[in-house]
Structure formats: structure tokens, C-alpha cells
Amino acid sequence: MTEQSQGPALDNLLTESRTFPPSDEFAAAANAGPDLYAAAEADREAFWAKQAERLHWDSKWDQVLDWSDAPFAKWFVGGKLNVAYNCVDRHVESGHGEQIAIHWEGEPGDTRTITYANLLAEVSKTANALTELGLQAGDRVAIYMPMIPEAIFSMLACARLGLTHSVVFGGFSAEALRSRIEDASAKLVITTDGQYRRGKPAALKPAVDEAVAQTPTIEHVLVVKRTDTEVAWTEGRDIWWSDLVDKQSDQHTPEAFDSEHPLYILYTSGTTGKPKGILHTSGGYLTQASYTHFNVFDLKPDTDVYWCTADIGWVTGHSYIVYGPLSNRVTQVVYEGTPNTPHEGRHWEIVQKYGVSIYYTAPTLIRTFMKWGKDIPAKYDLSSLRVLGSVGEPINPEAWIWYRENIGANRTPIVDTWWQTETGAIMISPLPGVTSTKPGSAQRALPGVSAKVVDDQGKEVPHGGGGYLVLDKPWPSMLRGIWGDNDRYRDTYWSRFADQGFYFAGDGAKYDNDGDIWLLGRVDDVMNVSGHRISTTEVESALVSHPTVAEAAVVGATDPTTGQGIVAFVILRGDAVDGGADAVKALRDHVAKEIGPIAKPRQVMVVPELPKTRSGKIMRRLLRDVAENRSIGDVTTLADSSVMDMISQGLNKGGSED
Ligand code: PRX
């Protein structure tokens, strides 16, 4: 682990001290009351068993939790269920086939209305199609798609057949897709011809063609037509969705799978260049996704219209668009596009159009809305909103207050939800009908979850103290490992506090004087850019793969909109031309090509040297000082303390930003 990052400025976090209790009316009608904490406290396993009973099980479990092989948990041992049945069929069977499951809004303005009966038919057809392709329970399927209904049908069809999906964000590069397909030995990729990006169609399939040219495990590429973009075609391998899926029967009988059957792999950045395939299984995952969605958002399935603005390429899309909400019989909006296409009021127009009552987004977007101005939301009728959520990074109190005032009419509770790809579902959050919310704090672990802030020795810090966030008890939706790498799993999450048996989340945190938890950002070499996790090493590896780069060091610098911005310091090779604007642009583009546009450095600074300790470790702390325009901190552990002067001088000629 490297030195602790500053995360968001603590001073800023603690300037807002107002609290906002729920209204009596909200509290009286809320799904979750204070008794939930007491029930979980009295008997944790019985509590989780009760939550699991909200689902349909084909056979009941014999044991709630088996932790004997820690850190590999088994939840609801011996139980069997079908995840897709729980998200779709049972709602049709209970007489809600005509309820709208998805109000889908395409970026160009086209729409689709999908009822639960429609969803069942589409998922069944997709499942029959995947079976025709020869896929069998346990096989892996890569899904590389924009936010169109077929992406959701595909995920649910996989779940229905016991296929393990690996969704790869549609903004990732061919190389990122290739490495993920290879790591999971996927047999099928489901994709589209193209996707809409900021009002224009952009091709997507060429990236798949490039990726699968090097992945022999892939047998087929199933392609949904979305943009009518001309695409290259490999006969025998490539299949149009419309040719295969449309002709299938809309009847399909789901099979029950073991509670621990793998449901999905989702890759996330770690502290090395190689992303980790986070593995989630079925019964425990669905239990906690469903429970948290129901209680944290106070979902009323008969009246609410819910909207989570995430992409299915991230865990938020998995747990809070697909599995949690659909298991709760949600009516939800799914939006394909960007928030400013064709205008900056698009989200509020959608809220008004569908009467959205629950809205879940990321702080980076809230800060972007702030930048665009409060006049924009003010033009729309947002009176349907009754719960607002935030996820992905610490929300600064200023953005929290802006969100409450300008979107929530000073009335709606805001739930700041802390969790991770690894935790599978929300862990720390207010309950909207119980908690007096505090701008900037995620507050306390949900009933059934246990989190602590501890010092270096694993000892809990007192109120007012700061340290590391740990989860000290197993939880149902916890990751079951890193795909194919149990050692890395133990090492990454369980070695830091091995004596105590704590899961180390990688986040710094503090307790305030009331004992509420404030998240302070990552303490490892993982950056958080617009709520997306990107490792410094991954970007460094991409940079040094460019022929002109000799060495690179990357830091996350505080950014007013994106939380952190990627700042790269590079040393060019001796024979490379000087680091002018063209060279810098080439490097930024190269990173976008290697990883994806989200990893494009905000700034590339060409420097003559990097600050290193005597053991050769790059001192990122000093580079962060430079990147954030602070005076440079203690340089006494540098092997050569004149390096920082050289860097500052080098910046004058090489620094660049656009
Ligand atoms: O640093 C924390 C931050 O996002 C990380 C998890 O990223 P990811 O796995 O991509 O999942 C994002 C969506 C769940 C965490 O380690 N993070 C997430 N939510 C919050 C947060 N930091 C502060 N407050 C939050 N509410």
C-alpha cells in the first residue's frame, strides 16, 4: 500500500453540519423502520434468512452461512433458485404481467415499453437462442452492449440458463474486451453493430472483431442491430440477433440452480495492471441486492417509477438496474444516452415524462448539473421525486445540498450509498424513513451489515478518529473470489487485517462525533474518476506501451467535477522528439485506445525525472502535490531531492492539458 491519499478535502466534508430527518409522513409509510436494526442485531443469520424468504426458492437451504472455508463464503447452503425466475416469471404468475417493467428511452428519442409479460417472452426467447447455440450452464458469455433492452434480456437469459455473464462496458477498448474474454474463456459475445454516443452513431462491432481475432474460445458473436452501421461479417461465427432470437419460442422452463452457482463475473481495476474478475454467485447476491433495493430506496412496486442512471457495464447497473429492482417488481426507466443529448435538461425531461419517483445517480453527474445551472432543472416538473440516491464516490456536502434543493425540492431524503463491485450490494447508507441524513456522510452500516473504521493495527478508532474502512462480518452478496485467482483474492482483501479476519475495502474513512461514517476516498493506487475505478498502474502500463515513452507515473488529482482526474507524468525516450502538444495528444489517445476513453489522462506532463525513494518506489504523494498545484511536501526520503525542482522546471516546457 502506498501513502494515504487525501481523498476529498476533509475540511470541506465537515463544514456542513445540518441534518435532515425524514418527514413524519415518509417515516410512517416507509418500508424500513428502526426495528430492522434491532432485528438484525438480535440474530444476524435469522435476519438474513428472513430477507432470503422474500425470494422464491425451489428448495430451501439447510444452513444460512458456511464460513468454515473463510474467506470463501457460502450462503443459503443447499438452497436452489433461479435468479431470472425471481426477477421476471414470478411477477407474471402473481398477476402483474401487464405492469410495465421498463420504460426504455433511446438516445435519439425512440422508446419501448416493456411489461413483465413482454420481458418474460423476450428473456425466454433469448434463453432458447443461447441454448440453440450449444451453451450450457457454467459457460461464460461476454456482453458488450450499450443500454438497450437486449442487454438486459441477455443478462437475464444467462441467469436463467446458469450461464455466467461477464458484462464489459461498451466504452472499453478492443484490448480491454479481449483480455476479459480471455480471462474468463468466454464462448459467446453479445454485442451491437453500433451505439449512440452524444447524438451520433458510433461503431461497436469492429472492437469485437479485433478482440475475438485473438480469443479462440469464442464460438459465436451475436449482434443486435441498433444503429444500422455497416459492419464486417464473419460467416459461421457472426449471427444477427433478429435471425436467431426472433424465431424462438417465447416459452422456456427455468431450472433451479444451487445458491452458490456463479451468476456473473465483473472486472474491476485493482492496484496492478490486470483487472480483477470479481465473482458473484446467486442466492446470497440476489437476497442482498433485493433487500437493499427495497429498503434503501423504499420501493413501492405498485406506484413508484424508479430510475438508476448507471450503465449495465458497472456493478451499479447489475445490482440496481437488473437484479435488485426486477426482483422487487419495479417499474423503471432505462435511458440509453448521455445526460446532455440533445440538451442539458434531458434527465429532468425524462423524470417529468415518466413521473420518476426514485432517482439514483453519481456525485460527478450532480456536480455537472451544478455547473450547467439550476435554471435547467427548474424548467421541469420534478414533483414526482420522493427519494434521491448517490453512489460511486464521496459526495461533497455542497453537491448534496444542491441535489436536495434543486432536484429534491428541499423535501426528498437523499441516500448516500457506499459499496463496491466486490460487495455486490449497498453496505453503508441511510434508511430514508429512519435516518436523519447528513450531507456528505454515508452514515452507518445497513441492518445485517457490519463495518468499522480501524487504525493500522486493526483497532477500532474512537469517534472523531480516522483510519481504514473494514467489513468485519461476512455478508450475503460478498464476492466469492477473483475469477481464477484465489491467491490474489486472499492477498488483496484479506491479508491487510489477516489477524482480525477483516475484509479491507481499500477506502479511508472516519467517524464523526456521532459515530457516523464519512468515506474519504481510496488509500491505494486506485483512482476514482467520475465514479469509475481506474488503477494508476493500468494507465501507466498503457503509457509505457507507447514507443516514445520510457517511464510513466500516474496519479489521481482532485477534480471539481469528476472527483479525481488522471494526471500522467512521463519521461520520453532519448530519441523521442520533445514533448510538444502533438506528442501529448498522441499519448492521451493511446491510453484511450488501450483501455477506453474514460482512462484518457486529463493531463500529460513530460518530465525529465520521476521522484523515487531509495528503493525505487515512485513517490506519488509528491506528484499529487504537483498535479494539484500545491507546494511540494517532504522530499527527504527521495533518493535525489533535486528531482522535484527538475520536474517543476520540466513542466514549463512540457505540461499540457485540453
Ligand atoms: O472508493 C469507494 C467508492 O467507489 C469504490 C467502489 O468502486 P466500484 O467497485 O466501481 O463501485 C462503484 C459503485 C458501487 C469504493 O471503494 N465509493 C462508492 N460509493 C461511495 C464511494 N465512496 C464514497 N461514498 C460512496 N457512497
From TrEMBL:
PTM info: Acetylated. Deacetylation by the SIR2-homolog deacetylase activates the enzyme.
Sites bearing N6-acetyllysine, chain numbering: 617
Residues given in the record as ATP binding sites: 392-394, 416-421, 507, 522, 533
NCBIfam families: Ac_CoA_lig_AcsA, PRK00174.1
Family the UniProt entry places it in: Belongs to the ATP-dependent AMP-binding enzyme family.
The protein's role, per its UniProt record: Catalyzes the conversion of acetate into acetyl-CoA (AcCoA), an essential intermediate at the junction of anabolic and catabolic pathways. AcsA undergoes a two-step reaction. In the first half reaction, AcsA combines acetate with ATP to form acetyl-adenylate (AcAMP) intermediate. In the second half reaction, it can then transfer the acetyl group from AcAMP to the sulfhydryl group of CoA, forming the product AcCoA.
Protein name per its UniProtKB record: Acetyl-coenzyme A synthetase
Source species of the chain: Kibdelosporangium aridum
Gene assigned in the entry: acsA
